[in-house]
Amino acid sequence: MFKFLTLLILGFSFSMVAQSSIHSENYYSYYKDHTDYKKYQPKKLSTARLNELEVAAILHQEMKLAGFEWLSLFRIVHLDDEKHIVSICYSEKSKFGFVFDGSFNAIPDKKVRDLAKHSKNDEGYEYVEKIVGLKGNSKFIKVSQLPENLYLIRSDIYWYQESENEPLNKTIVTKDIITQILREDIRIILKSVKK
Q1: How many helices (DSSP H) and strands (DSSP E) are in the chain?
Q2: Model's pTM, two decimal places?
Q3: In the chain, which ranges are continuous DSSP H helix?
Q4: 46-76: per-residue pLDDT in tens?
Q5: CA nearest 170: which of 38, 47, 15?
């Protein structure tokens, strides 16, 4: 019985140490692909991203903790006479907020994280938002460069994996881990912003 408890505690400790060593600088190296799928043979191994609602709630919490006031979720922001976009979390008092890009690649790529701020798509735009009319018509708002008081959050960066295989689960980027990485990134961004 003692040996079993000792092994159980050691196994749990190893799992905690393995997952606690995953952070913003190295989490891409923990991505599991088809090679790992063959090795572990899990019933399920999926990759997902934090969605817009989850990111907005985390942004609101972190901005409030950092002392930002007059916070709004999904605030329409006027850029110029013809362009309005949605900030998923915006401080009217500080005139600072975040916009969200929900597009992502099938396989996470560290280059996307490295180029996250002020990188442009293939057409030369930093941010594109689709506006849908009541009659089904749509138009795209294309922004060459976001103003300095709007920071772009790309869902492609905040990916995580899920599996039903316990040994594999000890070595993957979980939703809890990527949520913590997002929180750390937000705190770094907010330190440079005047409240």
Answers
A1: 6, 8
A2: 0.84
A3: 2-20, 34-40, 52-65, 110-114, 166-169, 175-191
A4: 999 999 999 999 999 999 999 999 999 999 9
A5: 15
